[in-house]
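Explain this protein:
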Amino acid sequence: MLLSLREPPTAVFAEQDEVAVALIWNLRKSQIAVPERISVLGFDDQPLADWFDLSTVAQSPSDMGREAGELALKLIGDSGADQERHVVLPTYVIPRVTTAPVARARARDEGERGGEQVRE
């Protein structure tokens, strides 16, 4: 498992919110604290992301559908259309409770707030 590595990851980015929720369930079942030990971020902003308070990346499905339709129509109607065209649509992060600053940064910040100066 990734967490058994010498330097385990501080976060996991799942390709779908459903995968992220399943990962969180398994991590917590293994008594691995989310986000205290590892942050989890999903993708899609499906309704379950809100239900589980999952941090996620959102992208408009209607924008994706519109762009895909326009590209398809252009390719069908114009044999000289750029078949290698690459479209990037905007995304945005919706922070919720499954992500947190990296533990080392949290410890440093808490030490500074507690009156102790942490030197690096």
